[in-house]
Every structure is written in C-alpha cells, then in structure tokens.
Design brief:
Strand content: 15-25%
Distance between the termini: 15 Å
Shape: globular
Strand order of the largest sheet: 7-8-9-10-12-11
Number of helices: 7
Structural class: alpha/beta
Helix content: 25-40%
Radius of gyration: 17 Å
C-alpha cells in the first residue's frame, strides 16, 4: 500500500491506496492460502504526518493478514520519533517481519533495530527464517540495505530449504535479480517512493534513466518462476511517507 494526498487537508482522513495482487505460481502450488500485507518507507518524522502512519496500520489490520512485512526506511532523518514508531508499529496485530533501509542506517541502525524489537517486529539483517502461518511453513529472506552497502544476499540465502515456499524482503528492488537465482520467486521492496512526485511516468525517466533503477514502481517480472527470463517477480511499493518534501502526487 502507499500514500496519496500528503499531507491531508484539515479534517480529512489521510487517503491510503491499497493494492492487491497474487503471488507467483510457485507460491500457489505450495500454499493453500496466505495473505501478506506490505508496508514500506514510513519515514517516521516531521515530514510525514502521524495520522498517516496510524491510518496505514489501521488499514493493514482491517485486511486481517497472516503476516505483515516492512521493507525499510522506518525513520526519516533522526531518532527523535522512535517512540512514535514503536507505538504505531506495536499496534500491528499479525506477526511482523522487517528489513532496514538507507535512512535507518543514516539515523543509527542499531537504535532503529532496538525500537523495532520493542514494537514486536522481527528484524532480518542478511538472514532467513521460517514461520508457521495457518499451519503452513514459509521462509522469509531479509536483506540489509544495499544502498548503504550493508546487503549480503549470498549470506542471507544460506540454508534455505528448496522444498518450502520463500518470500524475499529487500529495501532496494534490484537485489531481486540475485534472489531469483537462489530460489526466491517473489521479492517485496520500496526505496524509490515511486518518484514521490509522479506525473506522466516522469518517475520512470528520473529514477530509471538518470539514477539507474531498473525497478521503480509496481510489479515487474513474471508470476511463472523460472526460465525464460525474468526468473521471478519483484514488487516495488511507493511507500507511506516522504523524506524531503511533505508532498506525494
């Protein structure tokens, strides 16, 4: 899900856009049913209104997911709003698993990690784990942030069971290329804010052509995991917050 119309007008409820899509064919063959909610780039701080953060978590809980995944940039430019982050994320009702983003490292990754632990969020830093949800086992691979040079995808995938379903989490979507090659058919990510201000697909030009992002916003790849290329799918969420200007279009 991502935010549109930021900040909300006085007296107006923040508008959060909820997007739904199916997993890969491999997931369909391995899982009877599993609903996963994805939040990213919340950027707790002065730029993103607190009402937006609360509305996003409320919407997540309304969907009754079995799992909530969070793909980084929990804070904006400092640790001043960590208590707000802990309070809000602590309201997530389903099991929650997350990875760090570049702003988390710039602001102090260890303190952000401690806050996530206080909120009940399981943080994966180049690790994988498995959970039992609806009597089904699923593996989660979580990469630390590659933008700041902390990702180690090769280490993160060690020990994966090829017989079990697996879902990848990475703040930066381009890490999906490696994860697909190592048995991860679907990766969820964020980081780009879809350009934050998106008009006539100018975000694809600015972030793709100029900055070098292959995956800018939305779903890329194929639900059919395996050859021919691409070998998997990656979803790049536009995220909830803003990091510089209080504006989302």
């Amino acid at each position: 899900m991502h935010l549109s119309d930021l900040p909300p007008r006085p007296g107006k409820t923040p508008k959060i856009e909820l997007r739904r899509f199916a997993g890969t064919d491999r997931h369909a063959s391995q899982l009877a049913h599993l609903r996963v909610a994805h939040l990213t780039d919340q950027h707790f701080g002065r730029v993103t209104p607190f009402a937006v953060q609360e509305a996003a978590v409320e919407l997540v809980n309304e969907q009754k997911p079995e799992l909530v995944v969070l793909t980084g940039d929990f804070v904006c430019h400092s640790q001043r709003y960590l208590d707000q982050m802990v309070e809000t994320l602590g309201k997530i009702e389903a099991p929650a698993v997350g990875v760090l983003g570049n702003h988390d490292h710039w602001s102090g990754a260890d303190d952000v990690a401690l806050g996530l632990h206080r909120a009940g969020v399981l943080l994966l830093r180049n690790q994988n784990t498995s959970l039992t949800l609806r009597h089904q086992r699923i593996q989660l691979v979580g990469l630390d942030d590659s933008y700041t040079g902390h990702a180690d995808a090769a280490y993160a995938v060690k020990g994966l069971d090829p017989k079990l379903p697996v879902l990848g989490l990475s703040h930066v979507a381009e890490e999906a290329d490696f994860l697909w090659e190592h048995g991860v058919p679907l990766v969820l990510s964020g980081h780009t804010h879809a350009g934050q201000v998106t008009l006539a697909r100018l975000n694809e030009l600015a972030l793709g052509k100029l900055v070098g992002h292959k995956y800018v916003h939305g779903l890329y790849g194929s639900r059919q995991y395996g050859p021919p290329e691409p070998k998997g799918a990656v979803y790049v969420s536009a995220g909830i917050g803003a990091s510089v200007m209080p504006l989302r279009i």
